[in-house]
Design goal:
Blueprint: E1 2-11, E2 14-20, E3 25-29, H1 36-48, E4 67-76, E5 79-88, E6 94-97, E7 100-101, H2 106-109, E8 114-117, H3 129-143, H4 147-170, H5 178-214, E9 221-226, H6 234-240, H7 242-248, E10 259-264, E11 267-268, H8 269-272, H9 275-297, E12 302-306, H10 314-323, E13 329-333, H11 337-342, E14 348-353, E15 356-359
Helix pairs in contact: 4-5, 4-7, 5-9
This protein binds adenosine-5'-triphosphate (ATP) and magnesium ion (MG).
Binding site for ATP: 30-37
Domain RecF/RecN/SMC N-terminal: 2-334
Protein name: DNA replication and repair protein RecF
Length: 360
Amino acid sequence: MYIKSLELENFRNYSGLNIEFDKNTNVIYGNNAQGKTNIIEAIYISGTSKSHKTSKDYELIKFENKEAHIRTKVFSRDNEYQIDLHLKKNMKKGIAINKHPIKKASELFNILNFVLFSPEDLNIIKDGPSQRRRFLDILLCQLDKIYLEELQKYNKILNNRNKLLKDIYFNKNLIDTIPIWDKQLVNCGNNIIKKRRNIIEKLNDVCKDIHKKLTGNAEYFFLQYENDVDEKDFLTLLNKNFEKDSKYKMTSAGPHRDDILFVSNGIDIRKFGSQGQQRTTALTLKLAEIEIIKERLGESPILLLDDVLSELDSKRQRYLLEYIYGIQTIITCTGIDDFVSNRFHIDRLFKVNNGIVTTE
Ligand code: ATP
Ligand code: MG
């Protein structure tokens, strides 16, 4: 799969942009604050309907404008698709595929799949568990059409239960409604637990191989699902925790607390890994993400590398660039020195300067 072209109108710092990408390695370079990440963000929105940087659509519209457009042409599953997004200031965005408006954003997952690797992802191992859950959820959304709905449903039920725990404090009679919410939470939560368990098992298999190659077989590595509740005893645990949950007015157990454990040579590298080990693991995870999507869809996802190459040493840069051979990649960076000195191949080079892109 690959993106053929991207057109922007009043999006972030772009008044107008129309670029054609190469099927292989594209490099977009320019100084800070010129619009590199804005291009990555536009692609991200085309594939998910949402930005990875903001939940507020109006921030995406160029200052002093009322609406913005993102138009992407994608070649995937032997067909060409046009994805149109129309962002409006105080209204819901319009999304169309091949000019037909769509209601469910998840339809975009059937067309455009990508893996984004940005400097924040380098911290995925050392940051809190929410970042790792986010990683799992984004991956599962791309692989499983109903996962997003299940997750949204779970979060809604969880919020309602937490609200109820607060309300019970003022109205003791409400306690009778708790079992209704618990039943729903367990039904929905168990689907999520099952899917996360499966994908982590898969990730473990794929990551082990990649990690071995990245470290030259130096470290014994594995990852594991870390959850405080199993499908079969979720309800029992909710009952057991009820007193504690009422006290703190919060549901203390469930997939909303899940985590992934990463072990290298017997050490939990979330806590005790060196920066290099944590980065290698982050890179391993991202490459595994590509591999799993590729295997499941029969096509490689697009790789977006936002400002991340310069954060890796040349050995890992080389491994990454060799690994992605044949996959459409869009790389942003402030300069191309690394490419020149390491003789990394570039198929199309773009320079961005204050919202204007030129092809070199
Ligand atoms: P860096 O190398 O620092 O990551 P970048 O090239 O990735 O820089 P972007 O994040 O793409 O930079 O941002 C480019 C510019 O877009 C910034 O100067 C920012 O202020 C501007 N910008 C962000 N949102 C809007 C908006 N809604 N309207 C106009 N300009 C905006
Ligand atoms: Mg940037």
